[in-house]
From TrEMBL, chain A:
This protein's name: Electron transfer flavoprotein subunit beta
Species assigned in the record: Zosterops borbonicus
Ranges for domain Electron transfer flavoprotein alpha/beta-subunit N-terminal: 26-216
SMART domains per record: ETF
Cell location: Mitochondrion matrix
Pfam families registered for this protein in UniProt: ETF (PF01012)
Family, per entry: Belongs to the ETF beta-subunit/FixA family.
GO MF term set: electron transfer activity
A single BP term in Gene Ontology: fatty acid beta-oxidation using acyl-CoA dehydrogenase
Keywords from the UniProt entry: Electron transport, Mitochondrion, Transport
From TrEMBL, chain B:
Keyword set, alphabetical order: Acetylation, FAD, Flavoprotein, Mitochondrion, Oxidoreductase, Transit peptide
Domain of life of the organism encoding this protein: Eukaryota
Subcellular location: Mitochondrion
One GO-annotated biological process of the protein: lactate catabolic process
Name the record gives this protein: Probable D-lactate dehydrogenase, mitochondrial
Claim: Acetylation is one of the keywords in the record: yes
Pfam families in the record: FAD-oxidase_C, FAD_binding_4
Catalytic activity: (R)-lactate + 2 Fe(III)-[cytochrome c] = 2 Fe(II)-[cytochrome c] + pyruvate + 2 H(+)
Subunit structure and binding partners: Interacts with CSRP3.
InterPro entries to which the protein is assigned, alphabetical: FAD-bd_oxidored_4_C, FAD-bd_PCMH, FAD-bd_PCMH-like_sf, FAD-bd_PCMH_sub2, FAD-linked_Oxase-like_C, Oxid_FAD_bind_N, Vanillyl_alc_oxidase_C-sub2
GO molecular function, one term: FAD binding
Keyword Acetylation on entry: yes
Species in which this protein is naturally found: Zosterops borbonicus
Length: 254, 481
């Protein structure tokens, strides 16, 4: 088996099925008591890493996250999906971290754990930033293959097929490299009960985020306001096509 | 106020006759609005039409008004109101039934329960969860992601779980995991007069019980004729550790079905075993773009631990070879397996694609496994003799198969041949000791066959139960009985 170590970054986000509401004050969304889960793109990244290990192309999958204590649950789910061990870069309750902070923590962990490949989800479904992978690659000065829809490991390099605006682009990157996973890369497995049981015994290390160089204080990106879209106005019935055209012209639509 | 006036009026209104459709009492809709809130009550023609039909061929029969209760208390108040005024009530989940179960043939109020969509009381240790009507089977399984548990009953549509309880639904996994009936532990029912009933007692979900008549089982499959299923407590199962799927073609329908019988007799704990006749296999292959040999086909799935799976695979291969089966490559990866199954799940659309512009009707008989080969072969002969397009697909592990009849409903002669064929098929199944409906329910179209199946005593007993719970025949009148 190749001695390749893969680092997968995951984020705990509000579950995609939840109907999100704006928090009072408009500075964010209601997240207390709301169902959370593993970010879907992170799940895909993790699945890819586990498949690489199962195929013998990688030796170890380490899953990491930057978050509060609650992220431990998310890391246990990742362990149940097949990661070998987990690390939590812990921040205090109420602290939010943006892409710059996460990339800093990941860079610190890369320094400690020495992976040859880092796979992240392309973006988180709460902020949709799509920045962390790119920032991390820049910090480490590693090549990056983002929006990956197909990954093939060779010795010393990785072939990545990317989904870009014009279609599909294939790159070959020298290892070590950073990849970010897109939707069509794979279909993540469901954790089974035996694996959930086993995951409870897998190692989960907690490190204060500050130890990895993540600065305290507010994140670089500040959310100024969140608001719901305007309520839908009632429709209007018209008598004939002339009226319809008239109304459309009036409202400036044609 | 308005409510009191209507309640006073209701007392004087008297019984509605079976075949008439009198208009609603004055101020009745206002009274509904007072309970549910004006935005949750609609008399708009488009909304009523949408709620007057399901996925079956039965003509649309819109209700007089549609309400969307937000909580069980509202369902109770609305039901009590309808009961006092003797107005028919029709429960509505996702409208994906196949027997006209939601068609409001006597008008009345359609209770669209989809806004009640809570998932509560998930217990990983007790393997149970409680859901309201707005929760569909796929939504529940997505919610369960990461817990290691799943709910295996999978009819074709992404149906409401409470709706599935109401029709006693089944799916491809029934051969190993059971249909809805064994997987419903408790139901919170609103009776026709508005009283609340918990069929296994409030807040209880024992895995087995011997306490009194089995009310849960009574309401499962009641098709909205005994009360509103406003919440169901379901039995969950652990996800299999390993799964493998294979497709095999056989030289004849008889060989494929005989193979199924042998697999079951060998006690291989097969999770899914689905049959496609050569017309269906061809249609599915073409529709999915993957191509399948034009032959009687079995699509089957095995669940187990890594070790037990290998053993099951070996047993399966032997039995399939003995019956002339070919093409036995196993798919174990998630994407491959999903591709194979989506070919089967799209059977309805693949069948319709055989004759674009036509409508489809699915038959649904279920016979003892020992009689399955004969019944299937006879049915195919009948199809050919009647000149009908009716690809066959089936959960052969349960003895249940569907002919998807694709025909031009505007052509009265062809429609007549279809009707005659389905009657013969129903009777053929009954003669073989089976049932006229394995999973779709009786609904509007199979009431006559129900009498033949149960006999007069059976039907009279059903009528007594109906009369005891719904003496004014307000719950989904015109269905089942």
């Amino acid at each position: 088996m190749a001695a390749l170590r893969v680092l997968v970054g995951v984020k705990r986000v509000i579950d995609f099925a939840v109907k999100v509401r704006v928090a009072p004050g408009g500075a964010g969304v209601q997240s207390q008591g709301v169902k959370h889960g593993l970010n879907p793109f992170c799940e895909i990244a993790l699945e890819e890493a586990v498949r690489l290990r199962e195929a013998g192309a990688a030796q170890e999958v380490i899953v990491v996250s930057l978050g509060t204590k609650a992220s431990q649950e998310t890391l246990r789910t990742a362990l149940a999906m097949g990661a070998d061990r987990a690390v939590l870069a812990e921040v205090a309750e109420g602290v939010t971290a943006g892409p710059k902070e996460v990339a800093t923590a990941l860079a610190g962990l890369v320094g400690r754990l020495q992976p040859q490949l880092v796979i992240l989800g392309k973006q988180a479904i709460d902020d949709d930033c799509n920045q962390t992978g790119q920032l991390l690659a820049a910090m480490l000065d590693w090549p990056q293959g983002t929006f990956a829809s197909r990954v093939e490991l060779d010795s010393g390099s990785v072939r990545v097929q990317r989904e870009v605006d014009g279609g599909l682009e294939t790159l070959r990157l020298r290892l070590p490299a950073v990849l970010t996973a897109d939707l069509r890369l794979n279909e993540p497995r469901y954790a089974t009960l035996p694996n959930i049981m086993k995951a409870k015994k897998k190692p989960l290390e907690v490190i204060p985020a500050a130890d990895l160089g993540v600065p305290g204080g507010s994140p670089r990106l500040k959310v100024l306001q969140v608001q719901e879209p305007p309520p839908r106005a009632g429709g209007e019935k018209v008598e004939n096509v002339q009226d319809l055209l008239g109304k459309l012209r009036q409202s400036g639509r044609i | 106020m308005a409510l009191r006036r209507v309640l006073a009026l209701g007392a004087a209104l008297g019984r509605r006759s079976c075949c008439s459709k009198p208009s609603l009492p004055p101020d009745f809709v206002e009274a509904l609005r007072a309970v549910a809130g004006a935005p949750n009550v609609s008399t708009a023609a488009a909304v009523r039409e949408q709620h007057g039909h399901d996925e079956s061929m039965h003509p649309c029969a819109p209700p007089d008004v549609v309400v969307w209760p937000q909580a069980v208390g509202q369902v109770q108040e609305l039901a009590a109101l309808c009961h006092r005024c003797r107005v028919p009530m029709v429960p509505f989940g996702t409208g994906t039934g196949l027997e006209g179960g939601v068609n409001a043939v006597q008008g009345g109020v359609c209770f669209d329960l989809s806004r009640m969509d809570g998932i509560t009381e998930l217990s990983l240790e007790d393997f149970s969860v409680t859901v309201e009507p707005g929760v569909t089977r796929k939504a529940l399984n997505k919610h369960l992601r990461g817990t290691g548990l799943w709910f295996p009953v999978d009819p074709g549509a992404d149906a409401s779980l409470c709706g599935m309880a109401a029709t006693g639904a089944s799916g491809t996994n029934a051969v190993r995991y059971g249909t809805m009936r064994p997987n419903v532990l408790n139901l919170r029912v609103v009776l026709p007069d508005g009283r609340l009933l918990h069929t296994a007692g409030p807040g209880r979900q024992p895995r087995k019980r011997a306490a009194g008549y089995d009310l849960t089982s009574l309401f499962v499959g009641s098709e909205g004729t005994l009360g509103f299923l406003t919440q169901a407590t379901l039995r969950l199962h652990p996800l299999p550790e390993a799964t493998a799927v294979t497709v095999a073609s056989f030289p004849s329908v008889g060989a494929a079905v005989a193979c199924t019988v042998q697999v079951l007799q060998a006690a291989v704990p097969v999770a899914r075993i689905e049959f496609l006749d050569e017309v269906m296999a061809d249609a599915c292959g073409r529709f999915s773009g993957k191509g399948l040999p034009v032959a009687a086909t079995l699509l089957l799935e095995l669940h187990g631990s890594r070790h037990s799976l290998a053993e099951q695979q070996q047993q399966m291969e032997e039995i399939m070879r003995q019956n002339g089966g070919s093409g036995l490559a196993w798919a174990e990866g998630l994407e491959e397996r999903e591709q194979l199954w989506s070919m089967r799940h799209n059977a309805w659309y693949a069948a319709l694609a055989l004759r674009p512009g036509c409508q489809g009707y699915s038959t649904d008989v279920c016979v003892p496994i020992s009689r399955l080969p004969d019944v299937v072969v006879e049915t195919k002969q009948d199809l050919q003799a009647s000149g009908l397009t009716g690809p066959m697909v089936g959960h052969v592990g349960d003895g249940n198969f569907h002919c998807i009849l694709v025909f031009n409903s505007q052509d009265p002669e062809e429609a007549q041949r279809v009707h005659a064929f389905t009657e013969r098929l129903g009777r053929r199944a009954l003669a073989a000791g089976g049932t006229c409906t394995g999973e779709h329910g009786v609904g509007l179209g199979k009431r006559a066959l129900l009498l033949e199946e149960l006999g007069q005593e059976g039907l009279d007993t059903l009528r007594s139960i109906k009369a005891a719970l719904d003496p004014h025949n307000l719950m989904n009148p015109g269905k089942v009985l």
